[in-house]
């Protein structure tokens, strides 16, 4: 059941970031709601980071990264390479791409 909820939250977060008129608030709500259900789901943290990066919200990006690192320490989880790469990317000075949809 939890897996399906997380999958749905991820799908909604991605769909809300796609297209010509992304709804980043709805995408953010979907990702954060999924994290309320399972705070260890890396894909939702990646969604959250991408959403904040796309919104130009540096504080939001840092909040997502900080929370992910806290959860990783708490549960003794190693981050996936794709997550580490995304963290490096969103902390760089590069602007976010115009269209989202990455995981």
Give the CA-CA distance, first to last residue. Answer: 21 Å
Poorly predicted runs are none
- As a whole number of angstroms, the C-alpha radius of gyration is 13 Å
Please report which band the strand proportion falls in: under 5%, 5-15%, 15-25%, 25-35%, 35-45% or over 45%.
under 5%
Major sheet characteristics: none
Return the string of H and E elements. HHHHH
Structural class: mainly alpha
Task: Give helix % range.
Answer: 55-70%
Q: What best-fitting shape do the alpha-carbon axes yield?
A: globular
Describe the structure.
The chain is mainly α and 103 residues long. Helix content is 70%, strand content 0%. The protein has helices at 2-17, 24-37, 42-54, 58-75, 81-91. Helix 1 (2-17) packs parallel to helix 3, helix 2 runs antiparallel to helix 3 and helix 3 packs parallel to helix 5 (81-91). The longest helix is centred in the middle third of the chain and has 18 residues, at 58-75. The protein is globular and about 35 Å long. The mean pLDDT is 93.
Topology of this protein?
Blueprint: H1 2-17, H2 24-37, H3 42-54, H4 58-75, H5 81-91
Quick take:
With 103 residues, the protein is mostly helical. 70% of the residues lie in helices and 0% in strands.
Output the keywords:
mainly alpha; 5 helices
């Amino acid at each position: 059941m939890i897996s399906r909820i997380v999958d749905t939250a991820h799908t909604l977060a991605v769909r809300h970031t796609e297209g010509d008129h992304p709804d980043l608030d709805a995408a953010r709500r979907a990702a954060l709601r999924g994290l309320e259900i399972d705070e260890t789901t890396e894909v939702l943290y990646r969604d959250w980071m991408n959403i904040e990066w796309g919104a130009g919200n540096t504080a939001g990006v840092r909040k997502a990264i900080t929370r992910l690192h806290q959860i990783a320490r708490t549960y003794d989880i190693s981050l996936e390479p794709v997550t580490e790469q995304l963290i490096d990317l969103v902390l760089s000075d590069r602007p976010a791409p115009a269209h989202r949809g990455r995981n």
